[in-house]
């Protein structure tokens, strides 16, 4: 069910925000990053869409609290042009190990939260060390893909 991934260190274009749900954050965050790859950058260049779209989730302290989200698009190679839209920035994720749980269908805040909770329960039952203070959702498909969709939750391994 879960396998460790060794190295997440890579170049990304990112945006951060706080919201009640991942769905709410994705509406604006995804479009900001899509604008970047569509030419809203210093070089005014178009950049191919890549996958996954990776969202880091830092859960709020309670059910009626905002969570912190960082939405990321992978940008291949080095020397990516600087973003021109406010709130969009280039970043590198640190190398880390994560446990991965894959699932199909369309992802949403409720589905991703349930899959992350299932993964954390399985890790707890197996005695595996993990960090529950944040986790990731990785989406690999275009919104227009209907069948064979692939999503993942990534739970950081506690060091």
From TrEMBL:
Question: Which residues does UniProt call coiled coil?
Answer: none
InterPro entries reported in the protein's UniProt record: Reg_factor_effector_dom_sf, SOUL_heme-bd
Q: Where is the signal peptide?
A: none
The domain of life is Eukaryota
**Which Pfam families does UniProt cross-reference here?**
SOUL
Q: Which family does it belong to?
A: Belongs to the HEBP family.
Please state what the protein is called: SOUL heme-binding protein
